[in-house]
Amino acid sequence: MKLKNSLIAILVVTSLFLSNYTKAEDGYRLWLRYNRIEDSALLKVYQQSINSYQLDGVSPTHNAIEAELKIALSQLLDKKISSTKNLDNGTLLIALVSSPILTTFNQKDVVSSLNADGFGIFTSFVNKKKIIVITANKPVGLLYGTFHFLRLLQTQQPIANLAVVSAPKINIRLLNHWDNLDRTVERGYAGFSLWDWHKMPDYMDPRYIDYARANASVGINGTVVTNVNANALILREDYLKKVAALATVFRPYGIKIYLTARFSAPIEAGGLKTADPLDDEVKQWWKTKAEEIYKLIPDFGGFLVKANSEGQPGPQNYGRSHADGANMLADAVKPFGGIVMWRAFVYDNAVPDDRAMQAYNEFKPLDGKFRDNVIVQIKNGPIDFQPREPFHPLFGAMPKTPVMMEFQITQEYLGFATHLAFLPSLFKECLDADTYSNGKNSTVARIIDGSASGYKLTGIAGVANIGNDRDWCGHQFGQANWYGFGRLAWDHNLTTDQIADEWIRMTFSNKTEVINPVKKMMVVSREALVNYMTPLGLHHIMGYNHHYGPGPWVNKGRADWTSVYYHKADSAGIGFNRTSTGSKALNQYATPVKEQLESLETCPEKFLLWFHHLPWNFKVKSGKILWDELCFTYSKGVDDVKGMQQEWKSVEGKVDEERYKMVSDFLLIQQKEAAWWRNACISYFQSYSHLPIPVGLDKPPYSLEYYQKLSFPFAPGIRPQW
Ligand code: BDP
Asked: How many angstroms is it from 698 CA to the middle of ligand 1?
């Protein structure tokens, strides 16, 4: 009887443990799960190679490193790894390159020549003991090196002869949160804002540390915590104290805090009559505000500004230029080492230009007129974060002004959080594009990292997809976009394949039977999405305002917020003519790019309707007429999602049940919505082409009116004041 009872007790405890274990796989741990190494032979090798660690030096960043090692090593290696004062075989030594311990270390010069964030990891012999050295010029480099080393273990790489040297190519690597002070998130689909302003500074959610760890693990070194559609309240003293408390949490992780500055803050928060950037009182107000901020946050990064765009106030309200506005703020933060990131995302429906041309038209003439601590932040494409855009013509067009990249990680135009779209493919397409602005090989990446432009101030920002959902991003695979953004910000030469590989290994499994299908799914996902939403260069045809689902019929409201403005479908054909016979937007690109895109022979079909208005019976490269090609491409997008579902099905039982189920359900939503996009768009465009659905393809199951009548008043992420 006794035996039976204790057996039952054991069973209960085990099943509780197991169910807790599976429950715990809710995605919270991101790619920092640190589960025991799956390959037992490799585990043995690792266990023999790592016995202890020695962390030389003291700083808050050192404490962060130690905390990470404590969570990671014993779990990964399934043995206790303690700190030691003596170097022995298998010691992991983490020390600044200037440390006396490394006086005789022969790789000193290599590491000393790296920038402040760079690091080296070497297998080395000290006093005949085989050790692993992680070294850097600054504590934050040691932190990055530690995360890199842990990644080697997590992804099961050989560690017997390490000689890794790595330094970021871009200096400022930022997340931009579009978070409002009431915790709603503009275009956020992962719950509410992480920032619990109401409870700060007295209660600091421990999650802020996990956020900082995740960012530091991929080298993100700054965060703008407030929405670009800014609220001046954040500049009030009580809020600044909350910001300072956050900065204190982030600092050990090498993450600087930045704020968005509402241009009219001197009026709203300062009681002045004007926000004119040339007004002395206004200048003084910002100077005093900057002093106040830096007293609280000595390493405050600076301001991000959206001005004179979509109704936001700006210098043009006072007849001044963007340079006047940016320089005034730059002067205020300059004494403290701060910068101003001034957004080039400006457009005004009063200007009758092609909207794709407006940013260039406004900013190009200002080249060279900005202070040296101003950097112009440009969206990847000339319209607005569409599933596919050509690169923004301002890249390479402002040789005398540092410019930085703005990507959108949150999937405002890419199916919100329920569609799986692996965005490093999108990021790479833009970064690798050749602007020819300074001869061949002036890629966008080389413009923003300074190598083809000579910029000293370099930066890249991603609009965050993070909220307070347990899984952070609203989709398990949304995490891969946060991860991938950070990895590319560090090194834009990484391939999408490498990034996917690392992420899958750390987030799901190192087993080939998981890696292969999941990677296949990720690699096709963005192209699939382009195909079922906006094939052949179509753009901006989504639902009005909330941007959810298809809306090619949207024709009311300001012209450049409608869809008909962009696709220009009529009985003759479809597409936006931006060539020399149309809006002439192509003139904004360097000659080789312009010539390539202008000619129908050489314009890549993925950009066809972005640049050309073509008849429905235009012959494309496949030999089909444009209308048929459009229908086939839409259908291919849907089929590709079905393929993704099959790939995912093959990992059932090989990954935890909880995340397996969630991803399966989301893929079903994605498949339904892909079909919805296809059917709605084909129905709509057919009302202009008057051509039949090609043989072999399904007819849309409902009438066009059906699709037009669907309404979503509570779609998430919407901007409240719209
Ligand atoms: C648009 C978003 C809007 C943002 C704007 C921006 O719909 O919510 O405020 O971008 O980047 O795509 O400022």
From this structure: 36
- Output the residue whose Cα is nearest ligand 1's atom 11: 345
Choose the residue to mutate in 189, 224, 305, 345 for probing ligand 1, maximizing ligand atoms within 8 Å of C-beta.
Answer: 345
- Paired sense of beta strands 163-166 and 119-126, if any: antiparallel
Q: pLDDT for 142-181, tens place per residue?
A: 999 999 999 999 999 999 999 999 999 999 999 999 999 9
Q: How many CA atoms lie within 13 A of 572 on its CB side?
A: 6
Say if ligand 1 is within 6 A of residue 384 CB: yes
Q: What is the DSSP string of 59-94?
A: SHHHHHHHHHHHHHHHHHHTS--EE-SS--TTEEEE
229 Cβ below 6 A of ligand 1: yes
Q: How many CB atoms lie within 10 A of CB 313?
A: 20
Q: Does 424 lie in the same domain as 318?
A: yes
Question: Which domain range does residue 101 map to?
Answer: 31-166
- Regarding whether 415 and 541 lie in a shared domain, the answer is no
Q: Is 545 in the pocket of ligand 1 (CB under 6 A)?
A: no
Strand pairing category for 52-55 and 302-305:
unpaired
Clarify whether residues 185 and 134 are in a common domain.
no
Going by CA atoms, what residue is nearest to atom 9 of ligand 1? 229
Helix ranges (H only) for 535-692 are 564-567, 591-598, 608-611, 626-649, 657-689
- Phi and psi, residue 677, nearest 5°: -60, -50
Q: Tell me the per-residue pLDDT of 670-699, one tens digit each, with 9 for 90 and over.
A: 999 999 999 999 999 999 999 999 999 999
Say which DSSP state 559 is in.
Answer: G
SS3 602: coil
